[in-house]
Amino acid sequence: MANRNHFTRSVSRHLPFGEKRDTRFYGMHIVSVEQFDRQDLDTIFEVAREMRSMVERVGSFDLLKGKVLANLFYEPSTRTSSSFAAAVQRLGGSVLQIDNVTFSSVSKGEVLQDTIRTMESYTDAIVLRHPEEGSAAIAASVATKPIINAGDGPGEHPTQALLDMFTIREELGRIDGLTVTMLGDLKYGRTVHSLARLLALYDIRLHFVAPDILHMPAALVEKLKEQGMAPCEHVDLADVLPETDVLYVTRVQRERFDDPSMYEGVKGSYVVAPETMAAAKERMIIIHPLPRVDEISMEMDDDPRAAYFRQMENGMYVRMALLALVLGKA
Ligand code: NCD
Fold this sequence. Notes:
- By secondary structure, the protein is α/β, with parallel strands linked by helices.
- It contains eleven helices and nine strands.
- The chain is globular and about 55 Å long.
- It starts with a helix and ends with a helix.
């Protein structure tokens, strides 16, 4: 413990806050991955590595002492919510958790804008998960404190995409030149919507594998093409698995279906199991934002290519980095 102050000082010295480029994160809303360029990702990754090493050495330190983070969740969450809570607490701050909105004024019909105005008057930043696409942008339009989008319906999930990218970089040592295959619910899966946009910053070969009714939205595919990507769409995973470096598996998003029979028709369309993976490279990774339902068999968990639990751990380091950059003083 004698080292704690020493570490706080050494973090401040080593974190690249002093450089002009990195102060651009200070006070920023994080609504869409479209805000970021490659240099931003390098900065976030560098700080995330620093956070990992500090957690391993000292557990927590006082970079954000006195800061209060609001965790405002209108949809269920395990990892996003708890990793943000752990992240701010490991940085010396605290968290105000509002995840049972039926006990809040939301159940009395309060509009999102008023709830945001309230939460920002008590806290220093708001992490928001909400079922409607565009809700984070609405929140950011009224907020004077940073809004961090933790999932806006089927729209985006930018912090997940950042931790996905960090995982790919740490696991495979590079991002450029890889073949990435996204599998499952590409229509409603917000994590793949954000990740595909971020991958467009790199030299990537992209494959989409989905049941007919769960294709990647056409507007997003068009956008990726305008950015110079040439994503190929498939129904059969076997067509692309042998060349895949990153297999990104997603859950069919049951809660987004209006018609339950449509969900019943596509659930269980893909199951990644040891037999499936016999055709895959020896050096590749399987990642998944979690929760998984049945799309990755539990028998896969001991396979060294199964990187989803390491990815989940990375979530805390990346969120620590984001909070430090957004809330930390230069
Ligand atoms: C994802 C989400 O909420 O979009 N989960 C997460 O944040 N790790 C994926 C999902 O729910 O399927």
